[in-house]
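Notes from hallway chat w/ T.B., transcribed later so I don't forget. T.B. wanted the structure written out for a chain they're using in a teaching module, and asked if we could keep both sequence and structure tokens in one place. Agreed to drop them here.
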Amino acid sequence: MTATAKGPASYFPSIEKKYGRPVAEWKDLIRSSPLTKHMELVAWLKTEHGLGHGHANALVAHTLAEDTAT
């Protein structure tokens, strides 16, 4: 049985389908940005890459959580 993704990761399949890029690529973009604050990164993804607020928020939240966990 496959576990269902929870939290921000639950958005990942629809992000990949809608924007045509793998989540790993979005995470690399976020990590390479000079911005560091959550909402700055969300706004950047929305304005520069055309993501919706929920998708941008999920990617940023998940990426920043990964980076603080390591």
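Follow-up for T.B.: The CA atoms of residues 42 and 56 lie 5 Å apart. Might be a good example for the class.
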